[in-house]
Amino acid sequence: MTQVSLDILIDKARSGYLVSFPTDTVPALAVRPDRSDLIFEAKRRGQDKPLILMGASSDDLWPFCRGSAQELQLWQKIADRYWPGALTLVLPASGKVPPAVNPADPSTIGLRVPNSAIARQILAQTGPLATTSANLSGQPALQTMSEIEAQFPEVLTLAATELELTNAGGGVPSTVAKWTGNSWEILRQGAVKLEV
User: What's this protein's family per the entry (predicted)?
Assistant: First the structure.
């Protein structure tokens, strides 16, 4: 049985264990960024598919990217408009990002602040975590903690009593927008329609 209380989940995530929790889109598999290899292993995921860093606030995430003062201002404007929410911004990575988060292209990093109180409560105490949808690579995202528990018995999930606090996700993945240096390229159209 891998269902645990919120406090234990937070403590174990800080210690480097693989955890899962609900977000505003689909449930996340999450781990400390320096232990990202655990997600690639568990999902049987190719190294060419990067993870994203999820944080409790944009301020927690900006240290993981680098850009000019103008770019940072522009990114902040987008973040203020869409975060918390189902938008992942792919930005130039700073030296603070462990290469294991994006092995194929460590020069970029996806960042997101979920519109989920329980996810932000966890992330506020763990710091940003490397995340992805909870599913085996190439398969549909799992939607419930019991499905996650069945497919990933080693992953810690929240006990059902803790889940009463959550607002369940809509099941639609986040929109992924990559900064190209002067504009946004939509890599995946998801729940949010980006207007710039």
Answer: Belongs to the SUA5 family.
CB 143 within 8 A of CB 27: yes
pTM above 0.85, yes or no: yes
Q: Which domain holds residue 36?
A: 3-188
The total number of structural domains that make up the chain: 1
The verdict on whether omega for the bond into residue 84 sits within 30 degrees of 0, i.e. cis, is yes
**Maximum CA pair distance of the chain?**
49
Q: What is the pLDDT of residues 123-174, one digit of tens each?
A: 999 999 999 999 998 899 888 888 898 999 999 998 876 554 444 556 788 9
Question: What's the burial of 180, exposed, middle or buried (CB within 10 Å: 0-12/13-18/19+)?
Answer: exposed
Beta-bridge partners for 188: 176
Cα(31)–Cα(29) distance, integer angstroms: 7
Total length of the chain: 196
